[in-house]
Write a structure and sequence with these properties.
Low-confidence stretches: none
Largest sheet: 10 strands, antiparallel
Number of helices: 0
CATH class of the largest domain: Mainly Beta
Strand content: over 45%
Radius of gyration: 22 Å
CATH superfamily of the largest domain: Glycosyl hydrolase domain, family 43
Structural class: mainly beta
Shape: globular
Distance between the termini: 12 Å
Bound molecules: beta-D-fructofuranose
CATH architecture of the largest domain: 5 Propeller
Length: 475
Amino acid sequence: MTTNRWRMGFHLMPPTGWVNDPNGLCYFNGLYHVFHQYSPDWPNGSERGWGHATSPDLVHWTHHGMVIHQDIPEDANGAYSGSAYIVPGGGAGGSDLLRLYYTGNVKEPGAHDYIYSGRQANEILIETTDGFNLGEKQVLLRNADYPDFCSCHVRDPKVWSQDGSLHMLLGARDMDDEGLALIMESQDGLSWTTASTVRPTSHFGFMWECPDRIALDGFEYLSFCPQGMAELPWANDLRDQSGYIPLPAAVKLIGCEHVNPALFRRWDFGFDFYAPQTFTDPQGRTILIGWMGLPEPPFDSAPDNLDWIHCLTVPRVLTRCEDGVVAMAPAPELEQLRGEQASFAHVDSAPAQTRTATLPAHRVDIVVDGISGPFDLTLDGAARIAFADGELTLSFDDGVQGIGRGRQTRSVNVNALENLRVLVDNSALEIFANNGREVFSTRWFPTADQLDIAIQGTAEEARVWPMGDGMEGTY
Ligand code: FRU
């Protein structure tokens, strides 16, 4: 069931198996590289390492299979998440050097809880000068190198250069079950010492995964995935959340010991989003890619015995809004996949308008501009995006073909809905509202051959394009 009506055409995914976090994002030697957590034999086997995909344009992808395996004692139970750092002129003959940092996960034999004992978290480096031929693994950090207050959960290195040093951000859980981030420092990228910790001003989850430092227009942000959040009123009963905290003006993460959890804003208000990572491309854009999945999902993402599960989001360009909110927009390159614009049939009925369109496949790009007042857009009569009374809601009529597979309702408060962009890519949906201030990512499993779109409400313009397939090279 590799080729299937539900497979994506512009959301990155491997040919078979399981994908989770994006890793090692970078633009190197003329190609975009996206590595990712990968279990190629899923649902059989438990190997966890890095898959690799490249693209010249963020649209057309080639998948190169599993490239980092769990094959040394220091990563015996998984080559976990990590990041890329490019050393300009660092390779032989003055070429650039790509460094991949990741966490080697090891579970020691014996009776352990694997939280306070029995687990190794090793930070490991792999170098490459061409992005494909990977060098020997070098183990740089072991449990004994982290501060004593850390439990065995320390992982997901993100490395960057700032103020004349290299910095490595790590997610951690301390011995009192407080989530935090560690910052290590280095001059050569090989030998690292602990520099500082970033803690919340009050308890905010027992563990922070996949931390990232983002700089937009001179303002810095800490992005991370706190675990242990289910009790919070906005958490939809989910343990795992993903969001960011803006730092005050002129404050750098490397000099910041405390962040205010009251300022935490979720990246995404949909059902399927976690573990995003960002990188800066040669045009200076900050691009985010997330995992369209969750560690402990209460809903189904592989119905009908599929031999693949999950995908990544499209690359999203980040911009800082005046109030500090980070907006996300699909990389404009995706518009290359647009076919000939299709038209909506208009049914004008005061005060609201109704528009409908039927497209031959579930792969489209919908743009609605100049929205005012209550509004809704429905796909196949079953997936509904609605704005009314200060609330923007995504909901599934699960009675229709079990289309949401357990996904029901998600919402966020907004003052108004001004515009909407909806990317439909078979079983992946990404919804960008208000120029990407509010985003909903979700999987759904439509079974109709054609896609029915119905729009109700006042809008100046609604456009829709069929989209092509940028993933042809992968399967
Ligand atoms: C987040 C995560 C990371 C870890 C990886 C293992 O989804 O748990 O913290 O490195 O996945 O696949």
